[in-house]
Amino acid sequence: MDVETKMDLALRPPTQEVVTQEELRALFETKAKPKHYIGFEASGLLHLGSLIVSGFKIRDLQRAGCETTVFLADWHSLINRKFDGDWEKIQGACAYYREAFEFFCPGVKTVKGSELYEEKYWEDVMKFSREITLARDVRCLTIMGRSEKEKLDLAQYFYPPMQAVDMRWLKVDIAHAGLEQRKIHMLAREAFPKMKWKPPVALHHALLPGLAEPEKSVAGTGGEEKEVGEAREVASKMSKSKPWTCVFIHDSAEEISKKIAKAYCPPKTVAGNPILAIARDIVFHEKPELRIERDAKFGGDAAFVSYGELEKAFADGALHPADLKSAVARELNEVIAPVRKHFEKKKDLLRVYEDGGR
């Protein structure tokens, strides 16, 4: 496969940013199988944003020749008090995540922190920590869903250095994550050269918005307009901590239809529209067109062969929200159905969630 095709695969939606494209191109030109990684805390049930959008980008990078890895951050989950710090439940969640990603992204490697760490790792965490200030560390706390003003345990301040050193120990060429992880990737890129460590290329995919109306303001957020916009995007993302905003990978066709029918999708509104975002990052990722099925009196059936064409029709009022929702719900069920069916035979992996833990 030529370099241009590899670049196209890496940059296609849902990719939002690569730092830098020049470095990524050089990587594809010089290395047959660049090493990729994306990390996840072991916490709640997987949904469209966590498994499907992330998994699609993993598949893209596999096709581009990358050696892909999903890092199951069990130590980070403990630090961030997932499952109230119950190590056994965290391990149960890791087993569930491992099964899901290995099924959805055949060929991906899954590694737990507890399988990776040894004495030298903690030495590197200390070395990295010497290269950054406490203020710089605190700025990265949003990667764990915490604000800079929260009262934290001492252990939580080690979360960013550990995440950075994970990349070093996994020998990562491409650090991949949603936009909310940008700060830690930039910190690693700044600090690694000081230590004569190779900095990773950072690839960030778009955050899939939740089904609710997007956040209009973000409390406590200052800084530049770009930073405020990113904070608003993170606050509005589909999140298992706000289950009413989520389509989970275990939802039935009926549940998907009901959730999509209630979703925020004002007529002619493109900005912050989660249904359009799902069409862009999920439907058009897998299919060359989106079919709209509607009565002749409302214009009859239609087919859109690109996301741009779909967005324009919706913005112009030529496509009604109800018709868009119906089509997106149908396509989502097709994407989720194989995963849902797979876990019907793996229900033992879901026991960790029976008491509502996350």
Describe the structure.
The chain has 358 residues and is of the alpha/beta class. Helix content is 47%, strand content 10%. The chain has 15 helices and eight strands. The protein has helices at 3-11, 21-30, 48-63, 74-79, 87-104, 113-116, 119-130, 134-139, 159-169, 182-191, 225-235, 253-262, 274-286, 307-315, 321-344; strands spanning 15-19, 36-41, 69-73, 109-112, 174-178, 201-205, 290-292, 302-304. Strand 5, helix 10 (182-191) and strand 6 (201-205) form a beta-alpha-beta unit. The longest helix is centred in the last third of the chain and has 24 residues, at 321-344.
Short overview:
The protein has about 350 residues and is of the alpha/beta class.
Q: What do we call the CATH topology of the largest domain?
A: Rossmann fold
Q: How far apart, in Å, are the first and last alpha carbons?
A: 41 Å
String of helices and strands: HEHEHEHHEHHHHEHEHHHEEHH
Overall radius of gyration: 21 Å
Tell me roughly what share of residues is in helical segments.
Answer: 40-55%
**What's the average pLDDT?**
92
> How does the overall form come out from the CA principal axes?
globular
In the CATH hierarchy, what is the architecture of the largest domain at level 2? 3-Layer(aba) Sandwich
Low-confidence stretches: none
Number of strands: 8
CATH class of the largest domain: Alpha Beta
